[in-house]
Amino acid sequence: MARYTGAVCRLCRREGQKLFLKGTKCFTEKCPVERRAYGPGQHGPASARRRKASEYAHQLREKQKVKRIYGITERPFRNLFEKAARQPGITGENLLVGLESRLDNIVYRMGFGSSRKEARQLVRHRHIEVNGGTVDVPSYQVHPGDEVRLRAKSKDLLPVQVALESKTRPSKVGWLAVDEGSRTGRMVERPSRADIPLAVQEQLIVELYSK
């Protein structure tokens, strides 16, 4: 699958806010968003003087922001949206729940990785087990009752230790139970929108895809 390999700070500048894509480095380094409060590229400064953005532009930016926060590309994002649209309930909330239930995000929320990118690498490199079996697919959907743990040989990896000891680790969420000592976690229940600490307007994404 294609992945963005450029400077992640460009993505933050394009969205006009910190997306915390570099984990702890976002807190220890001077953020380019603060130094250059305009979009990337040679026409970046001029964009601040452009006319008011259209409704479509707001919807597109919200979609791009969510995609970049979770680090996924258009096709899997669209597939998740279509799955959310078929489920009962509010489509936007179902979409966010689907994104939060991805294995790489669960590993990040549990504090085993300092960023979603780092958590994705742990999954890809076969350091993660789900219900006792190794899973190396970051998009794997975790369900209530599933146990996620680091493999026995991976519990003392330096990146994991650094992430767990970091003062800037993600805030704990009530729908995940984590035992840092055994490097184990469990999804207690399916999260609701109120349980997802993400400042996004998911309804704009629904409106964009509904055109």
Describe this structure in words.
The protein is of the alpha+beta class. Helix 5 crosses helix 11 and helix 6 crosses helix 7. The model has no long low-confidence stretch (mean pLDDT 84).
**End-to-end separation:** 27 Å
Instruction: Describe the largest sheet.
Output: 5 strands, antiparallel
Number of helices: 11
How many β strands by DSSP?
Answer: 5
The amount of helix comes to 40-55%
Structural class: alpha+beta
Mean pLDDT over the residues = 84
What is the 3D shape?
globular
Beta-strand content bin: 5-15%
Strand order of the largest sheet: 2-1-3-5-4
Q: Low-confidence parts lasting 5 or more residues at pLDDT below 50?
A: none
- Could you spell the SSE succession in H and E letters? HHHHHHHHHEEEHEEH
**What gyration radius follows from the Cα positions, in whole Å?**
18 Å
